[in-house]
Each structure stands twice: as structure tokens, then as C-alpha cells.
Amino acid sequence: MFINEEPGVGANPNRNKQHAFHFTADNCIGCHACEAACSEKNDNPAHISFRSVGYVEGGTYPDFKRMNISMACNHCDDPVCLKGCPTRAYTKHVEYGAVLQDPETCFGCGYCTWVCPYNAPQLDPIKGQVSKCNMCVDRLEVNLKPACVSACLGNALNFGVVDDLPENREQGKLSIPGFPDPEITHPNIRFQQIKNMPDEVTRTDGMAVKYHKGDDGQYRPVVDQKKGVEKKWSLSKLSSRENPLVIFTMVSQISLGAFLIAFLGAQLGIDSLMAMRDSVMYIPLMAATVGFAGLGMLMSATHLGKPWRFYRGFNNLRHSPVCREGLGMLLYMVFAGLHLLSMLPANSVFIELMGDWGRFDAFASVCGYLALTAGAVGLYYMYRCYRIPARPFWNHWQTATSFLGTAITLGSVLIGVVGMPTLILLEGNTSQLFAIALGGIALGSVMEGLGLYCHARAMDAANNEGSVSHYIQSTVFGKSYVLRNVLIAANASVALLLLLLAPSVISLGVALLVCLSAFVTALIGRTLFYVLVIPTTMPGAFFWKNKDFEEHAREIGLANMPQVGVVAHAH
Prior knowledge:
Blueprint: E1 19-24, H1 33-42, E2 52-60, E3 63-71, H2 80-84, E4 90-92, E5 99-101, H3 111-115, E6 122-124, E7 129-131, H4 137-140, H5 147-151, E8 157-161, E9 189-192, E10 200-203, E11 209-213, E12 219-223, H6 243-267, H7 271-277, H8 282-302, H9 321-343, H10 348-354, H11 361-384, H12 398-426, H13 430-461, H14 465-474, H15 478-498, H16 505-532, H17 547-556
Helix pairs in contact: 6-7, 6-8, 6-11, 6-12, 8-9, 9-11, 11-12, 12-13, 12-16, 13-14, 13-15, 15-16
């Protein structure tokens, strides 16, 4: 990769040292000249900005204070965007320490926008790709400063070697009010803020976050009850850009859970599951598990900005959990499919139609165990994808209990729905399968309920954006949240009660209602999982970088005007 398309090396004597922005908060007047210069230099559309100016404010009249914050990519020492990107679109260059990103390599999954604490990578929903600040390395090579620094009217932005204080500066702080924990990525930005701010400062964007000054002088995020305390349903807000991931995670976990119970149960010699394996319905059951896995992979691809570039999702197996998740689920689908094919010659319908091809039980067992291994790896890295410090609401072990609980619960539902009619027709051990399916529903529901209880306690006590997510969960989505929790308790209780009863028309009818309730519960919970998370972003302004204004602009039609800088959701 050449800078300025020149193979030669620039003459800057410090080109192999880590460079950084220096921001003097006291000098920033909020003119947005840095934003404009950056966007003009990079030819950005109105809805994309690599550098953004927001602010926090606090105090009371006449001593009311505002502090503007200009922020772009911080070219971190530990760039989580680089590690998370499945396509290897990111590079940490020796020259200037710049973290560079290639939008053409990017396939628009947006994972880098999740893991970055500073909202530096910008996902363009129109082009279907991410782009970001490149430190203006082309300008540095010819001894010019970045465009934003050159355009700054208030002498607030400066630039140079990270260890060197700019001229006429006294401080090189690692954080200021509103700045996320620098320990997440070790960002290369330094601050000066000599003027005091009130002990509590607020944001004017729609984020229900404010910052409180602790005894150590550091500002930490706390809940700002902007949304009130009334509990609402907000069902229309449960839909989001992440809808394909809702489907992907749910159907993948259904597939894994059902395959685990059906295959491993038969291998362990459980009568009812062995009878189902030897029945004509085993092939349709396995086809359903492979089909659900395939549907999940399809939904994962449709979530991409460039779905046709899905094959690039395996480029960064060394670092990215997204790559490992995708590879695990792909191998699971392949081996489960091979298990299905190797069991097909033993199916009575196949024998009637195609003749006796013999049996391939040993090969089928090997493929089954390989499928379980790959599926376990895929499920583990599905969980690891969401252990993101920049998204504290997800960064909790409850994500694991949610995913595993869904796999057990809905996998048991699929086994019950397919297996019970099969064994009734075969006059098999329906009581045993009835108990297995209901026990799985109860176990998965209890597991998820316990995780949610511990998660709610942890988020309620947290001093980060996770507590804000919990506040939104308890108010804006309060009634939906309560409904999900009640359904989890009801599903577990009724399933345990039915375990005491023998299968009958009434108990089977009630069990079917429990199965339907379990699916609805999982769907509500998974949609809440995606819409509730609040990242550790920098403060926005009243219009710019304000999610509430963006939604308002879409509702009233302002988003149809390109100059507003708001576009409709891509999907």
C-alpha cells in the first residue's frame, strides 16, 4: 500500500513514531470547522462524518458551563476494530501509528462499530461499507497536519508525536468528562482541560446518560432519567437493523439444541430417542436442524452491507470471534448434513423407493460427533462476539445463559413437536420423550431466568452504560420486559407441573401452548437484547449524532432531504 500512490518514503523524521491528536477542551468553540474540513477532504456524504463535535453541560444560572468535545479515530495501541473485523480490512501501520481501513475490503457487517468505544468507524447504510479517519497520512507525508487540525479556529486541536506535548500546552490527560475508559483500547489522544466543570454534567442528545464526578476526580456515566419512569410496551421499537441477527441466533440455537438432544440421546441409549432415530421421522428432523442452520447462515449474510462478499468473513480467524463463529456454524451445518445423508439409507421410505444401500452407522456417528464439536465452538464464539467492553449491557455472562438456554428450550420444543406424534403412531415410549421435552423447556427457562435475574442486579448497580440500558428496559420497554419475565417463569412452572402427569389429550394440549409460549418468550427476549444495548459513545449534540433526532427526522420526512444527514435504515 503506497501513500499518495508514491513508492518513495516521506521525509518526515518522526514518521515511524506513534502520533496522536491533542485536544484542548477549553479552547473549542463548537464551530464544527474540523468536521467540515474532514468531510470535504474525504468527500464524505452528509450522513457520514469521521470527526464529530458534541458537548456536555451542567451547572445552574449564572454559572452554567458547557464543554465541547471533538472526536475522531484515536488510532489506538490496542485497536479492537482491527481484531474484531472478520475481513481484515484494518491495518495498524508502522508509519505514524495510524489505524487504516479499506472500505473496499469491508463487507459491511458493522462489528467494528460495535467494539469501538468512540464510534469512530462509520457504517454507510447506502454503500454497505464502513470507513473512518485515516489520520490524513497523505498530508503527513508532505509535512502537513491533518485537515481537521489545520481548520480548527479555536486552536483546540493539535497533532504530533504522542509523547510530546504540543507548544503552549500544559496537560496530556488520558480522559475528560464523557470520554470512555481508556483501558479498553489505549487510545492515542491526549487532552487538556484546565477549567473546572460541575460535579454532574449532562448530554443534550437523546442518550439517557449523564456523568458524575467521583471522589477520584474522574467522571463516570450514570442514568439520566430522560425517558421518565412510566412502563410502556413500545412494541414497534422492538424492530431494528439487527433483525437478521435475531433470526440467525435463534434458529442456529434451535438447530444446535435439537441436534444435541436427538443425536446424543440416541447415542446414550435413551429408548424414546433411539426409537425416533430408527423411525421414518428422523430424516425430516435432521433436515429441519440442517435447514435451520442454513437459514441462520443466510440471515447472517443478509445482515451484511455487501451480502455477496460473505466469503470474506473467514479472513481473520486469528483474532475475530465473528470469523470463528461463522466457521463453527458452517462446519456444524456441513457435518450435520453428512450425518443426515449417511442416515438416509437406513430410512424405510428411502429403502422402498431406492432399494437397500446398506447402513453407514459408524460414519453417521463420527459426523454427528464432529457436528456437535463444531456446533459447540460456533455457539461459544457466538457468545464471545457479544462480550464487548464498549457495550456493557452485553458484556456479562448472562449472554451465555441466554444463548444456551434458548438452545435447550427451543431445541426441546422441536424434539417434542416432531417426536411426540412419531412415537404416538409407533406406540413407543411417549412418557419418556414427553418428560425429556418438558424437562428441557424447564431447564432452559430456569437457566435463562437465573441469568436475567443476576444480570438485572448487576446492571442496576453498575456505573456504566449497562445501567442505562437496564433503565430503558424497565421504562420504555417496561411492559414487554415484564411480560417476557412472567412468561419465562410460567413456562418453567407449567413444564415442571406437566412432568408429574402422564401424556394425555389435555396435557399434550397444554404442552403445545407451553411450546408456543417458549418461542414467543425467546423472540421477545432476543429483540430486547439487540435494541436495548447502549454503547460507550462520545456525547453528541442536539441534532448531530443524536439518535432521537434521527428517528424524529425519519418520522416527519426530514430524512428525505440529503442535507439533513439522516438516512432510512437499510434493513
